[in-house]
Amino acid sequence: MDDAVLEVENLTRRFGPVVANDQVSLRVRAGDVVGLLGHNGAGKTTLVSQIVGLLRPDAGSIRVAGADAVADPAGARRRVALQAQAQAPLDGLTPRAAIEIAGRLRGMSRADARAAARALADELDIGEWLDRRATPGGGLSGGVRRLTAFAMAAVAPVPLVVLDEPTNDVDAARRRRLWDAVRRLGDAGAGVLLVTHNVVEAERVVDELVVLDRGRVVAAGSPGRLRGTGVGDGPGDGTGDGGLRLELSLSPGGADPSAPPAQAPVPSPAACGPVGGCC
Ligand SMILES: Nc1ncnc2c1ncn2[C@@H]1O[C@H](COP(=O)(O)OP(=O)(O)OP(=O)(O)O)[C@@H](O)[C@H]1O
Predict the structure, then answer these.
(1) Which segments carry the region annotation Disordered (predicted)?
(2) pTM score of the predicted model
């Protein structure tokens, strides 16, 4: 596919006896937001780590905007911005400095990085903390640290943006702003791979969903295509289960095409918190 900014083919990664990624294939095209869903331990972060060249696969291939992420991980890293699941080490920095440094490291001019940091702070509503210094164990809340890390990933244009649980610790109002910003990145032409447990909220901004289960892709397609035709189609459907149900009828490169269609609740209602969804 010509406009693919991420092409993962038959990726396999083991940790001893654990097959964390089992022949995973997926694509992200320029302008698309692809949500990567899956239970704890499904293999999402393992996949992300290989895409950004932090972990070598046992088998399979990864291309990031044309660069071979296995043979040339440094080349792939130049084409991708990552918001890691772990909190960014901000201690000693203000959000403004951290975002501007991230922009400068991506080749932005000082003036452009400064303007982009201000615009992102406004977009995410973190302006009141923009000049507050993060200190070990204090200074900035977990949510503001998370939003700052998102802004660091989003500040400069790159072909691929990978976001690993960007809404952790973020309040409901700022989550809405964050989702809008994720959509804006896609609309501006980036491919976005979005790892999230917050499937109900994320559904609003994703073009495609890919579902991992014990290292394997078990569903892939648009939310509309994956949504079951019966009850439980998401929030506000009156069934009270609050979860997107996915019809496991898959595209090529996804799950075993010989498997019979089945409905899988994602998330399991018991695992959901009071706000948003999870999986
Ligand atoms: N460094 C490691 N050493 C051994 N096992 C690992 C390592 N990293 C991951 N695993 C295992 O690989 C599997 C996939 O883990 P991974 O962190 O990729 O899952 P995940 O989908 O990101 O989970 P979560 O939603 O909890 O973040 C798990 O069984 C995990 O225990």
Answers:
(1) 222-272
(2) 0.82
Q: Which of 45, 194, 212 maximizes ligand 1 atoms within 8 Å of its Cβ, making it the mutation to test the pocket?
A: 45
- Residue 139 in any domain: the answer is yes
Domain edge (last residue) among 126, 157, 188: 157
* Choice among 73-82, 150-159, 258-267 with the minimum mean pLDDT: 258-267
209 CA distance to ligand 1 middle (Å) = 20
* Binding-site residues, ligand 1, Cβ < 6 A: 15, 18, 20, 38, 40-46
Residue 233 is assigned to a structural domain of this protein: yes
Query: Tens digit of pLDDT for each residue in 158-189?
Result: 999 999 999 989 999 999 999 999 999 999 99
* Residue 193: pLDDT over 80: yes
For residue 122, the CA-to-ligand 1 centroid distance in Å is: 35
As a whole number of angstroms, the distance between CA 192 and CA 210 comes to 13
Ligand 1 centroid – CA 70 distance (Å): 20
Q: Output b/e per residue, 256-277; b: 16+ Cβ within 10 A.
A: eeeeeeeebbbbeeeebeeebb
